[in-house]
Amino acid sequence: MRLTTVQLVVLLALATSCYAQKKNNFAAGRNSIVQLFEWRWGDIANECEQFLGPRGFAGVQISPPSENIIIKARPWWERYQPVSYKLKTRSGDAAALKDMIRRCNKAGVRVYPDIVINHMAASGGTGTAGNNCNPGSRSYPAVPYGKGDFHKSCAINNYHDAAEVRNCELVGLPDLDQSKQYVRSKIIEVMDHLVDLGVAGFRVDAAKHIWPADLDAIYGSVKNLNTEFFPPNSRPFYYQEVVDFGGDAVKREEYLGFGNVLEFRHGFELSKAFQGKNPLKYLKNWGTEWGLMKPHDSVVFIENHDTQRSGSGGISILSYKESKEYKMATAFMLAHPHGETTRLFSGYSFNSNDQGPPNNNGNILGPGVKPDNTCSNGWTCEHRWSQIYNMVEFRNVVAGTKLTDWWTDGNQQIAFSRGNKGFVAFTVAGDINADIQTSLPAGTYCDLITGIKSNNSCTGKVVKVDSSGKARVKVNANLDGAVAIHVKARLQSKL
To answer: Cα separation of 105 and 45, whole Å?
Structure first.
């Protein structure tokens, strides 16, 4: 069949639009989205201005902004049970959300809401905006949705049946039928509203449970980004939750034509490696040879709010509870060139999996900030750990360079350079005490894992690189497990 000129133009426009939806919309010179799990909008705005912006972070993923059902004891997962698409939750109302998005954009930090469009609340009662719902009769009058807007009620019992995964109810949550134009229109309406407020894209919850063709149609119908903050014709960036370890009927590749997919295998494999369950030497070919998606197709991460509580694929995913190994895995992610879009996680300490954020009578407490930049009030604030934010700076400094100077002891110790801009080393067994070749200029460097460079001095240990580029590397496996330096951490010689 010969295509007409008009048909070719239409196809080209569609392809261009789909490709644009895979662009993360970061401001130049920045990297990494940080998921500020369950934070209040006003606190996020302050964090953008006071910490994320100045430290070179590129974006913030916020908890679902739409009205959710209020559940006794206020577990975190109530945020994933929508009552309506009114923009009011215990993180704040629409006015606070608008103000936060504006302030974050002004600070150079893009905003990506976690959006729940697969289902509605399974519990009846009152929502955070004062609206009611009756899941039994599929009545959500504040949208409004009724019985005809949902798939027929059924449970997901067989993940080897793609139709069952996408048409039946995820843990009993009433499953919307996104093939219906009315349902699509209501979803597009709230996404358009968020685009008008200035968001840069969306993390799409439970995308695995929605038919790809329906998501493609919805994404393509959402308007271009707000030109107050973005260049004309910019498209929202979509990164989708498709949990795929290779054994289910639903494949991540089905969702790559119109957006990116969260790379769950990334955190799974790096958790194994830095827990000592897979030799670090095998990370030499880290990337697509490990079965990971191409960098432009994925969003890579170590953990999220789900894996932090339940693990994934039968292994414990690293979290703040294994802080040394977690910092090492995160440092490797940020040092390695694989991954066009990296995402960090920042949450709160918890003793039970259902436990909601720090609160006072149900009202979320803000994260207090200590003199050392860490948080109080029960917030872990992993992104404020110096080993994390220093590595965000590392990734910005080494941007555009290739991995060079790979070194290993043949087992559980590795090191590599990023061109002539940076160098890292890691060990999970035995101390490193060796002269290792780098591509860095000669000089004395502040180690970003143990210290902070300030006024041409270092609060931690230093690493010396000689005129041949060899670095004297000392890493204690039981203390820090890693060392990282880059050219902006070089200390100037004193005359």
So the answer is: 9
192, 222 contact by CB (below 8 A)? yes
What pLDDT score does 10 carry?
42
CA distances from 233 to 115, 190, 325 (A): 22, 19, 42
- Cα torsion 437, 441, 444, 450 to 10°: value is -60
> What number of other Cβ atoms are within 10 A of residue 51's Cβ?
19
Q: Which of 296, 342, 263 shows the shortest CA–CA distance to 61?
A: 342
pTM above 0.85, yes or no: yes
Q: For 410-458, where are the E strands, in sequence order? A: 413-418, 422-427, 432-437, 443-446, 453-454, 457-458
Alpha helices, H only, 246-401: 264-274, 307-310, 323-335, 386-397
Q: Is 352 exposed, middle or buried (0-12, 13-18, 19+ CB in 10 A)?
A: exposed
Q: What is the pLDDT of residues 205-246, one digit of tens each?
A: 999 999 999 999 999 999 999 999 999 999 999 999 999 988
What separation in angstroms does the CA of 364 have from each of 40, 70, 145, 358?
Answer: 7, 14, 29, 6
Closest residue by Cα to residue 111 from 55, 54, 53: 53
**Residue 67 and residue 119 in contact, taking contact as beta carbons nearer than 8 Å:** no
User: Given the DSSP bridges, would you call strands 298-301 and 260-263 parallel, antiparallel or unpaired?
Assistant: parallel
**Residue indicated by tokens 């039928």:** 177
Closest listed residue to residue 245, CA positions, set 226, 268, 222: 268
| CA distance linking residue 353 with residue 176, whole number of Å | 27
Residue where the block lists tokens 């339940």: 310
pLDDT in tens, 64-80: 999 999 999 999 999 99
Is residue 329 a contact partner of residue 276, using CB atoms and an 8 Å limit? no
Tell which residue, 450, 445, 471, has the closest CA to residue 460. 450
Annotated catalytic residue, options 43, 169, 205, 214: 205
Q: What type of residue is 77?
A: W
- Do 86 and 130 contact (CB within 8 A), yes or no? no
CA neighbours within 13 Å on the CB side: how many for 402? 4
pLDDT of residue 11: 44
* Catalytic residue (choose from 241, 263, 306, 325): 241
Question: Does residue 435 carry a catalytic annotation?
Answer: no
Distance between CA atoms of 239 and 491, rounded to whole angstroms?
39
Neighbours of 477 (CB within 10 A): 18
SS3 at position 218: helix
Positive/negative CA dihedral, 328, 331, 335, 336: positive
Residue 334: count other Cβ atoms within 10 Å of its Cβ: 26
Would you say the C-alpha torsion 454, 456, 462, 465 has a positive or negative sign? positive
* 205 belongs to the catalytic site: yes
φ, ψ dihedrals at 40, nearest 5° = -75, 150
At residue 417, what are phi and psi to the nearest 5 degrees? -105, 160
